[in-house]
Amino acid sequence: MRYFAILILCVLPLFATAQEWEDQQVFGSESAPRSLRILSSTDTSFFVPIIESFIAQRPDVSVEYLVTGTADLDDLFRQNPDQFDVVISSAMDLQLKLTNDGFAQWLEEFEHPDWAQWRSSLFAFTTEPAAIVINTAAFDGLPLPASRQDLIEVLRANPDLFDGKVGTYDVRLSGLGYLFATQDARASETFWRLMEVIGSLDAQLYCCSGAMIDDLAEGRILVAYNVLGSYALARADTEDVLTVILPSDFPTTMMRSALVSKSASDPGLAESFVSHLIGLQSEGSAEDFPLPSLDAFQDTSGRPSISLEPALMTYLDRLKQQIFIREWESAIIQDR
Fold it and tell me: Per-residue pLDDT tens for 75-104?
């Protein structure tokens, strides 16, 4: 029995680190003397040119790029901070809390706007809006919604067309979806009315923007709410199929951010990658940096509508989170 217990203790770490990745790729030579492990919620296609340009300057470096959802990313990194060197996520609130909880390495000052960093440890490098994305052909003869209220009206007026055909994030599974939803709810009561309308139409719930865009392109859904506009705009194959609408009533614009793990195996190399990333967003071409830069989507104050500030963590309070999700479930998951 004692030997069996020892065996269990030996095997447990293997189970703890087992993970099914959305994607996993290695760039550069696997025998390179230096390696970098990046944990990210961003689709690999956006980071290929960024990583390749980094490796081109450092042929002695290999980069392993691992993709998972924003909520899983946060849980995985908290459990294994020594397994990853750089963490990249669109869930600003979770990234800010990781930094606040001491998981991020303090870095030397970069030339970077104060509003796009937090405590010299968390660095934003994109601005990306939440959008209404529609299957263009399905709206032939219907008014295109310019705002959330417009969307409510067109959905209410055409229930047979849109029943089972409206998608949005499942905020219980997606950290980014939860961020967008809580920020929308803070900005306007229109959000809750829209959730009730979408819920009455048998809402389709998703983990991530890519899956919503795939289903939009195939016609399995006709409307996606709060999807990442940058993902839809980047897809050349959907250019004539989908229409991306940035709501005119109020913007919800997040910043994708990066941090260096305080337990990074090669902190100097990890810092060099973040520096490279920040430099590309301000100076690189669209081919070198295929994501929206910090200047791409800003409101009249000269910064994105969701800022890197402590207020972001309000809805991460366990009680507030439980209450919000319960209200969201009541609106979006309706007995029919």
Answer: 999 999 999 999 999 999 999 999 999 999
DSSP per-residue letters across 270-322: HHHHHHHHHHHHHH--TTT--S--TTSS--TTSS-SS-SSGGGGGGGSHHHHH
Is the four-CA dihedral 122, 128, 131, 137 of positive or negative sign?
negative
Closest CA to 258 of 244, 276, 243: 276
For 245, the token pair is 């609408």
- Give the number of other CB atoms < 10 A from CB of residue 11: 10
Residue 54 CB neighbour total at 10 angstroms: 22
Q: Distance (Å, rounded) from C-alpha 290 to C-alpha 243?
A: 19
Given this model, what pLDDT does residue 18 score? 60
pLDDT value, residue 285: 79
What is the maximal distance between C-alpha atoms in the chain? Answer: 73
pTM of the entire predicted model:
0.89
Question: What residues have CB less than 8 Å from 186, skipping those under 6 apart?
Answer: none
Q: Which residues of the chain have pLDDT under 50?
A: 1-17
